[in-house]
Every structure is written in C-alpha cells, then in structure tokens.
Amino acid sequence: MSTPTSMAPAYSAAEAGNPTEVARRLASRGVVLEPDEVTLLIELLGRPPGWAEAVLFGILWSEHCSYKSTRHLLQRLPTRAPHVLLGPGEDAGVVALPAPCEDLALVLAHESHNHPSQLLPIEGAATGVGGIVRDVGCMGAEVVGVLDALRFGHPVEGGAPVRDIVRGVVRGIADYGNALGVPNLGGDVYFDRQFDANCLVNVMSVGLVPRDGILRSRVPAGDGPWVFVLVGKPTDESGFGGAAFASGELGESDRRGAVQIPDPFLKRVLHVANGEMFRRLRERGLEAGFKDLGAGGVACATSELAAAGERGAEIELDRLHRVPKDLPAEVLLCAETQERYCWVLPESFAVEACDIYNRLYALGDVFPGAAARIIGRATDERRYRVQWQGEPIVDCPVEAITAGRRVHRASRRRPPPAPLGPVAETPDLHGSLLALLRGVGSCSREYLFRHYDSEVQGRTWLRPGEADATVIRAHPDRPLGVAFAVGGNPHWCGGDPELGARHAVAEAARNVACVGARPWALTDCLNFGHPEEPTVMGDLAATLEGLAVAAEALGGLASRGHPLPFVSGNVSLYNQTGSRAVPASPIVLCAGVVADLTTVVAQSVRRAGDFIVLVGEPRDQLTGSAFAREILRRHAGSPPGLDLAREAALQELAVAAAEGCWVVAAHDVSDGGLAVTLAEMVMACPAESALGVEVDLGVLETESALALFSERPAIVFEVPPERAPIFFQNARERSLLAWPLGAVTARPLVRLMLPDGEAVSWSVEELRAAAASPLKALWNEEGA
Question: What percentage of the chain carries pLDDT values higher than 90?
Fold first, then answer.
C-alpha cells in the first residue's frame, strides 16, 4: 500500500550542529522538535533519527503527550487517600465505593479538546467525548455518564463566529453522547470575550467497574507471551499530528486534517463487544492490558503499554487494518483515527478475541474495514521496534519515548489584584436582578442542556438543573448514589490564580455537599497559554498550589485526616492567540458519595411555611462579583476571601443536614449572589406549585446591594420548622453563622423586605422569562 521506508536519517549529526536550522526545516515538513530536542534525540538514540522516528518523537514529545513542562509541577497535587485504588498515571482514576457497594469502584477521567473544537466545533467536541469515554472503558468499566465544562467567547460582542462555535460544540457533544447511549450529567458554561479566539471544551466521563475486574493500561506481569491487538476503525490519515496541533498556537494555516472524525454508532458496538471481552477475561481469570488510541495513535498506545509494564514492543505495521489508500508508514504509526483500542492479551487468547470483534460483532459490517488484528508482541528487552514492509523504521529505548523529555520553564508569579472597594452607587435592585438573569453570565442553562439526554440508562436520580449536583444510582438494588459537580470561575482564576483555584475546588465540593453527598474524589483540567511565557507558568504554579491547599483541607468527609484526592486530570497549554492567552482556567470535577438516595436534596423550594436560612460568610464584599462586572461595569477586583476551615465545616453541615433530613432544599451562593440563588430556587419549582419566598434582608445588617449580590461562600437552606432547632444547634456547634432570612410562601413571588422598610418583589413568571431568554436567542439568532 506504500513505498518502502528506509532508516535514512531525517538529519545528520553534522546538521544537528545547527539545531535551530534543523528544527526550522523539520517544521516546514510538519514535524515539531525544539532545537535542544534535535540534539537530545541523537544522544538518546546514539545516532541521527530516521524519518519515522523524527515524526514519532515530534508527536510524543509534544506538550499534549509528554507533559514535559508540567509533570514536575503536578506532583504538588495530593493523589492518595485510603479509598484511592488507582491514581494519575492510568487512562483514568479509580476509587473504591463504600458499603453496600464495596464490590464496585468508581472510574473518573478528564480531558480537553480545545483547539479541535475552535477549528471544527461539531467534530472537535464529539471526538473529545469519544476519547474520554474510551479512557473510562479501558479500565474495564461500564461508562455511566459524561459531563462538560465549556468556556466560550461572548455571543453578542464576539459576533456570529462565537455563536457558531457555541452551537456547534453543543451539537457535537449531544450528537455523540445521545447516539452512544451515555447520559450527560451536566457541567457548567461561561461566556467571556477572553475566549473569543480560544474556546475551552473540557469533557469528563464516569464509569462503574467490579472492584475485582479493573484493567490496567500496561503489559501484565508474567511470561505471557503477550501480543498487541488493535481493535476498531481502519487506520487512516485523520487526526495525524493532532497532538502536535494541540501543542501549538492556533494559526492561519488550515489544520482541519488534524481533527479526528467521530463515529458514535461504531463506538456503541465496540462498547458491547468490549463488554463481552471483559466477561470472558474475568470468567477465565486471564490477565490483560487495555488502552485507547488517542494522541499519537498506535505509537503512543503501544509504547505506553510496554513502558508501564517494564517491557518492550515489536510492532509490524503491515498487519494494521487500514483504509485502501497509499499512506506513509509514519502516518499509519501516528495517525489519531478515532474509535480504536489496543489490547495486550495472552497469545493463546488473541485469536478468540479477534473472533469476538470480527465475527460475533461483525465490525466490518458496521464500518467498512473495521476489525481486530494482532499487530505485534511484547518483549523482555525494553526497546521499541517498528517494522514496515520488512524494514526497521523505529528502534529506540521505550523510555526515550515515554520519559525522555523534561523541560523546566521560567516562571514568574504576578501580584493579585486588589479587592473591589466600597461602592457608592445606589442601584435599582429590581432591575439589577433581571439584568443579571437576562445576561449570558447568570441566565438559565436549560436551553443548552435540553439538547442532551440525561436519563438514558435509567440511573439518573437528580438531573442537570434540578440541584447543585447531578446524582446517579450506583446499583439498581442498593441505596448508594454518586453525585457530580464542576467548579472553576474563570474571572476569579484569571484574577488571582491561587485563590481562584481554591474556590474551584471548594465550589465543586460544596455543590456535591449541597445534595447530601460526601466529597470523595477530584479530577482537573488545567487550561493555560504558552508555557514559554513566564507569567503563564507562574499562573500555573500558583493554580496548582491553590488546588492542593484546598484539596488538603476538604477531604475529611471521605476519610478524616486525608486530603480530597485528585485521581485523574489533564493539562492543556497553548490556549493563546498572539499575546493574548485565555485566563488561567482550572476546571475541577468533584465526585461525591450519597449514603441513601432517598435523602438527596434538590434546589427547588418545597413547602409553604418552611424557613429560608443562609449559612456561611457575611455579606460584606462585592469583590469578584457578577454584579460589579455586569451591572456596575467596573473591574470586579480579586475573588472574595475563602476560609477553608469554615468551608469544611459548611460542607459537613450540608451533608449532616441531608443525611439527618433536617432540610428539604439547598442551593449554594455563587454567580450573582443571594439574589440569583433565591431566584433559581423558586424557578426550579414545577410551574403548578405556585411557591415563592419572602425574605427580610435586615437580619444581614448590611446594605441591600451587598446582601443581595455578594458572592462570598454560603448555602441557602430550606428548613422545616420542626427541624430548625437541631439545624441551628449543629450550625452553632460548627461555629458557623446562620441567618434566618424568611420563609417559603404560597405566592409565586420573590419578595424582599429591605433594611429601610421598603419592599421589592419579582414574580416567578418574570424571573423565568428573563432567565430563559439569552440562550434561546443565541440558538435562534434572535436579535443578532
């Protein structure tokens, strides 16, 4: 299918004397090696690299694959706790679940697909979902949900291109997840001009696996012999260079070929076939390794499987099933064709495994050329060798690929902004709340997430929009549930990366606690600009410090004395155009465990006469608030302060209140402050319920604007009168401030009594109309 490829060097040792010129010449042919990597590669190989080797190392030494600038910094994150079974280093993290599901484990993975989604929104977002689903499936798990955290430009100020990206990304996520039959369990979305040229599409996937059936991404121990089996679509040129594409700035050249092509229908068949593989392996007690093919294609998957198992590999490219097209060997080796997996299996089982895919599930009938093929074997010698048409095209130490490149970049932290000072304006409170709800920052997200199927599989207990976290049932016959929530305010993280990162962890964990779940484990994606810029690396280091400090303070509800562990994650760099990088954007997923699903707490008010109680920090700052940015049109300043000891106590109270049935609704105070929180609690009620709230702001002993729009951490609870004594007692025991603000009423109004004796009110109907309008207008180009 192609002309033979020799080991003729990509450049000579003499030419490497001018590494900058070699790097420039390689870049003109699509191979990205930094000048010092040109010489390092000769040192590692003991000779100049062949062309296929230059391509391979250019891809696998990219930031996207190697984490060469960040791996040493990531060690700051806490990753261990008694319930962690597998932490970072595998395709996904795995944590144990408590009784009565101690025979199950929870699998979590987190990835970014930012550049592809900016370039081709539908395909980029869809393949992001496809990749993260494979990561979870490769641990032997059933995939039970996906989430997404999205950062877009401003749909009005950024114009039609931004709106096209928003709609395309949501369509890509929906089309893939819905066709695959995996529920979308929520996430979050922010809009800001700083993302006009670089959207962020972070995707997460969750799964459940028998605790004794967890697979590893490595060649197993033992004599084997072990063989590599490639499964899925025929290899083509799609996605070739995708990892290098994601490790550079988006430019003017057409890189659409680096974006992969999704096929959720083939993936669905592969999921079922993989399930049959899991069953047979477990029944027979066979060891195996399993890994998805993403960045770097066959080369990355097989070399990482070998290196993780302290083995080598011999790959025969002629054995790959591929499209009927003349493709160079380096493309076959490194293309990122979607919907592919790589097994490491005992040679005695490999033929049967191929038969499962090729005959029992007839992959070739689902997609022309799809198949399962043996493509090589593991070796005791720790070298990575590839042959093509009888000729060697790669021969190197396997560790040179997976661990051969580390870079320490210059780093400079910038001083955080000052907090927002006193505000002299006397705003129109009625108009201010409606203006916030009519803006894309605080409006309802329902029009977006209604594109997704959140109930397929029948596990979903609380859907997106019904509570601060979504909740699924872990097992159909057991009461245990698992909750998921996302945190990461780009305005706060961009202003003060360390404090903003603390808030990201705290918010994700607080949202999980609001439904009554104990924060159990974290994943993260770190989205930043060029690593060559010292301020970007300074922001990254500050962010990691903030994430770590918060995680170390908030793990007590899962395992007292231990941190809340990060078990999986991703780093996405080069989210920058010219001199303008995206703001520091850590996005954190928190998974929590609900002991009894019948006690979960939603956010909608439930019963007239119940008390409305605010617990948390005083309402004494507008710094960092949406009100300051969007209503006052001022620089919002630093994020509000965060006392992690009080935050831990607040989350402990929320979980105790849910487990003890002391509260019937809970909603955290975040974007838009108390005003938006109360509005969302009444808007979440069924239309026929005709409930509202009446609140006296005077008890907060502060100005009305501060009381309504401060975003200092807090939770609003609905407390039945008969449970109020025990609730307030538990708040006092934890040294938490608790303000009885008012009550739920039988009138569909939000009515506020102001400190001066005046009242202001909104009908639930006008609140709903305001909150629903922005995204509906965006999708339908109303008023564009």
Answer: 87
Angle at 428 between CA 427 and CA 430, to 5 degrees: 140
Q: Are residues 455 and 327 in the same domain?
A: no
**443 and 391 in one domain?**
no
156 within a domain of the structure (yes/no): yes
Residues 203 and 253 in one domain: no
Q: How many structural domains are present in the chain?
A: 4
The answer on whether 503 is annotated among ligand-binding residues is no
Domain assignment of residue 401, given as a range: 217-405
Residue 430 is among the residues annotated as catalytic for this protein: no
Verify cis geometry, omega within 30 degrees of 0, for the bond prior to 225: yes
pLDDT for 6 equals: 54
Cα separation, 200 vs 563, in Å, equals 28
Residue where a domain terminates, one of 177, 194, 213:
213
553 inside domain = yes
Cβ–Cβ < 8 Å for 71, 99: no
Say whether 491 is catalytic.
no
Residue 251 lies in a domain: yes
Same domain, 512 and 603: yes
Q: How far apart are the first and last CA of the chain?
A: 51
Catalytic residue among 83, 110, 113, 530: 113
* Domain containing residue 333: CATH number: 3.90.650.10
**Which residue ranges in the chain fall short of pLDDT 50?**
1-5, 242-247, 252, 254-258
Residue 295 has a pLDDT of 80
Does residue 202 have a known ligand-binding role?
Answer: no
- Please tell me the predicted confidence (pLDDT) of residue 422: 84
User: Tokens 């679940």, residue?
Assistant: 97
Mark whether 96 and 27 lie in a shared domain. Answer: no
Task: Give a yes or no: residue 573 inside a domain.
Answer: no
Q: What is the pairing mode between strands 184-191 and 142-152?
A: parallel
Residue with tokens 């609870």: 717
* 475 annotated ligand-binding residue: no
Task: State the DSSP H helix or E strand holding residue 507, giving kind and residue range, or none if neither.
Answer: helix 497-514
Statement to judge: residues 154 and 40 lie in one domain: no
- Residue 706 and residue 701: Cα distance in Å, rounded? 10
Check whether residue 268 and residue 209 sit in a common domain: no
Determine if residue 67 is labeled as part of a ligand binding site. Answer: yes
Q: Which two tokens stand for residue 283?
A: 């029944």
- The pLDDT value recorded for residue 152 is 97
pLDDT at 5: 46
Judge if 165 and 111 occupy the same domain.
yes
Query: DSSP for 87-129?
Result: -BTBSSEEEEPPTT-TTEEEEEEEEE-HHHHHHSHHHHHHHHH
Burial state string for 502-535 with b = 16 or more CB within 10 A and e = fewer than 16: bbbbbbbbbbbbbbbbbbbbbbbbbbbbbbebeb
Please give the full DSSP string across 342-397, using - where no structure is assigned: EEEEEHHHHHHHHHIIIIIS-HHHHSTT-EEEEEEEEESS-EEEEEETTEEEEEEE
Is there a contact between 594 and 470 (Cβ–Cβ < 8 Å)? no
Query: Phi-psi region for residue 637, left (φ > 0), alpha (ψ -120 to 50) or beta?
Result: left
**CATH number of the domain to which 98 belongs:** 3.30.1330.10
Identify the pLDDT of residue 578.
87
Report the SS3 class of residue 598. Answer: helix
Known binding residue 488? Answer is no
What are the DSSP E strand ranges found in 727-776? 738-745, 749-753, 759-763
Q: Which of 64, 110, 271, 503 is catalytic?
A: 64
Q: What is the pLDDT of residue 133?
A: 96
Q: What was the pLDDT predicted at 246?
A: 43
- For 192, the token pair is 């800001």
For residues 47 and 58, the answer to whether their CB atoms sit within 8 Å is no
Query: What pLDDT, on a 0 to 100 scale, did the predictor assign at position 230?
Result: 98
Give the pair of three-digit tokens for residue 82. 């008694």
Neighbouring residues of 175: CB distance < 8 A, sequence distance ≥ 6: 122, 126, 264
pLDDT, tens digit, 9 for 90 and up, residues 80-112: 999 999 999 899 999 999 999 999 999 999 999
Is 572 a known ligand-binding residue? yes
